[in-house]
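Thread amino acids onto this structure.
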């Protein structure tokens, strides 16, 4: 990247970025993300990093990685006054090597880390008028205070999967009524292993992705509306191959006693039950059926199809309210308070044994519980799951690095399903555009062995649906 404006000859002003601690705790590689621009780390940032280096949390691991990066660059011949050369970037890294005397408003208490960072930024802004001095922080309140002091502040944006969450891939497309008129010229159809396939050419295929669902209302000669829904199996420059999907809204195709109640749930079950799809993401607000559909599909494939050996369920343990302190017991017992949704849905699925009375329901519940394992994310590193159905619940609270750590645990024959609602993020410094769930939906949309569906219609109750819309 040149320091010349695109299409012009006037030079771009040099920039000096001041990094807040939370940026490095969130993404250690932020040191290398500013291309040809220089970076400065205030001394208080190094002190805060030192305070957070201990522990098994993802933030502690990130801090230790930052320390390793800095140690590799700090050689015996390094000249701190000239700055350190940054690998993978053209800029240089500077450290605060002297105290900067800068008066702050009396309302900003001295000795506080955020205020010291503001003071350093103001001092550098006055000392280097030839440069754009910019404070980068993921702390909204710090950015607000910086703006009130006339400091140029920015959020760290390199971890954004998308600029606008409204652009997030939904996994479905509703086609116009004239679709067949525009795409039936070179249409080819055939049957294979009881499945219906179509080879289609036309303008619509240019925007399709692998395993995307397409739906259209067609009309029979009798004038009766008939739904046509298919999944995109292959996308080529000149044509696409689609396959008509199974209708899990029919009693004939009930999955562990569960039927799809709307088109999106039908699409989700087609992904969850497809043995050729290794990775599934389901987004939707509360009550759309994400967990229930996933558990039903998992139990169906474990007990009836013998495709997987057991279900592994994990989730981010981020509380909505106050912490409840340390919990006694084994790993699974410690995780049970976080798995209320699991228990609720298993209760619904166990009702399929009503024919056997209370004894039959109890036996079914015991059988199901023997094939379900609840695991903590804290102990996932180094593990490999073989022939497991892995469910990652509340995945919107994970960072992109945490998502990578979990997904790379998959061994041969394992399917991973990520569930979440990006409108309910509880992890500090994560947003809808930086959530790990958003990240994987965007990165996996063109992979032939993954699929995604955004569930829009709530099916829990009319009360829950109204609350989602009105509150």
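Threaded sequence (471 positions):
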């Amino acid at each position: 990247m040149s320091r010349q404006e695109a299409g012009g000859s006037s030079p771009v002003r040099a920039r000096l970025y001041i990094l807040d601690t939370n940026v490095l705790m969130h993404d250690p590689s932020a040191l290398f993300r500013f291309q040809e621009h220089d970076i400065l780390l205030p001394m208080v940032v190094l002190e805060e990093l030192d305070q957070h280096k201990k522990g098994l949390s993802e933030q502690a691991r990130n801090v230790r990685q930052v320390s390793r990066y800095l140690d590799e660059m700090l050689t015996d011949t390094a000249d701190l006054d000239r700055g350190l050369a940054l690998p993978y970037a053209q800029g240089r890294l500077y450290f605060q090597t002297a105290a900067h005397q800068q008066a702050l408003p009396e309302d900003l208490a001295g000795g506080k880390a955020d205020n010291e960072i503001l003071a350093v930024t103001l001092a550098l802004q006055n000392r280097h008028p030839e440069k754009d001095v910019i404070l980068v922080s993921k702390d909204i309140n710090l950015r607000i205070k910086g703006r009130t002091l006339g400091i140029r502040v920015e959020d760290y944006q390199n971890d954004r999967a998308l600029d606008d969450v409204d652009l997030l891939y939904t996994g479905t497309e509703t086609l116009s009524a004239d679709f067949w008129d525009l795409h039936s010229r070179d249409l080819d159809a055939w049957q294979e292993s009881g499945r219906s396939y179509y080879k289609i050419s036309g303008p619509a295929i240019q925007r399709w992705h692998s395993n995307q669902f397409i739906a259209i209302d067609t009309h029979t000669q009798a004038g009766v509306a008939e739904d046509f829904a298919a999944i995109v199996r292959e996308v080529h420059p000149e044509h696409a191959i689609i396959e008509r999907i199974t209708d899990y809204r029919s009693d004939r195709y009930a999955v562990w006693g569960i039927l799809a109640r709307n088109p999106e749930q039908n699409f989700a079950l087609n992904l969850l039950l497809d043995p050729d799809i290794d990775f599934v993401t389901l987004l939707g607000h509360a009550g759309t059926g994400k967990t229930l559909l996933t558990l039903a599909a998992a139990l169906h494939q474990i007990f009836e199809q013998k495709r997987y050996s057991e279900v592994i369920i994990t989730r981010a343990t981020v509380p909505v309210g106050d912490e409840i302190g340390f919990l006694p017991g084994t790993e699974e017992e410690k995780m049970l308070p976080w798995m209320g949704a699991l228990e609720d849905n298993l209760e619904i699925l166990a009702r399929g044994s009503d024919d056997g009375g209370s004894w039959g329901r109890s036996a079914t519940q015991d059988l199901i519980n023997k094939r379900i394992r609840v695991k903590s994310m804290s102990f996932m590193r180094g593990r490999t799951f073989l022939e497991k159905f892995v469910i990652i619940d509340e995945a919107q609270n994970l960072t992109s690095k945490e998502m990578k750590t979990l997904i790379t645990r998959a061994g041969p024959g394992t399917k991973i399903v990520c569930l979440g609602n990006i409108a309910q993020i509880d992890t500090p410094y994560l947003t809808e555009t930086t959530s790990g769930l958003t990240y994987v939906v965007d990165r996996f949309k063109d992979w032939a062995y993954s699929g995604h569906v955004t569930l829009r219609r709530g099916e829990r109750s009319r009360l829950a649906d109204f609350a989602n819309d009105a509150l």
